[in-house]
Amino acid sequence: MNIKSTADIKGLHPNFRYALPIADRLWKDNGHELTITSGRDGRHSAGSLHYSGRAVDLRTRYFDQHTAAQIARKLQERLGCLFKVIYENPGQVGEHIHVGYLGY
Known about the structure:
Blueprint lengths: L1 E2 L12 H14 L5 E4 L16 E5 L5 H15 L3 E6 L7 E6 L3
Parallel strand pairs: 1-2
Antiparallel strand pairs: 2-3, 3-5, 4-5
């Protein structure tokens, strides 16, 4: 698992210790190393889970759109209802998979 040099993952919710290895396995199963591109850093919408350490963005630029969407679906299934997985900006600059933890 890689972390983009500008990504701040300090203070992530402890349940990401469960979620990120699952994501890492899915990326490896599809021939790539998982890269976290954002945690508590960056610009996000007001009230974003990123600011409280309850969201990460994961790189998808090396996958075609079908594969990235499939990975997002599988990740959602494996993480369950306490997480929300969204494939954001498919086919555009900045596309990624957003993973937010909805619990407390």
